[in-house]
Amino acid sequence: MQLLRLKEVLKMVPVSKANWYLMQKRPDAPKPIRLGPNTVVWDKNDIEHWVRQQADKDWQT
């Protein structure tokens, strides 16, 4: 498992920080992993899987 901080996530998902946090409220969004009171990371595999799902949704519409 490779853990990514927000800066690295936003390189993979090119949206603003505010939009990323809004998207985190969706039920299908990758779940953050809290490592401490001020440290949040995401699993790289979860982000990649979620990006593929979003691309598939775009192709289906």
From TrEMBL:
Q: Which InterPro entries match?
A: AlpA
The highest taxon in the source lineage is Bacteria
Q: Which Pfam families match?
A: Phage_AlpA
What name goes with this protein? Transcriptional regulator, AlpA family
Name its species: Rheinheimera pacifica
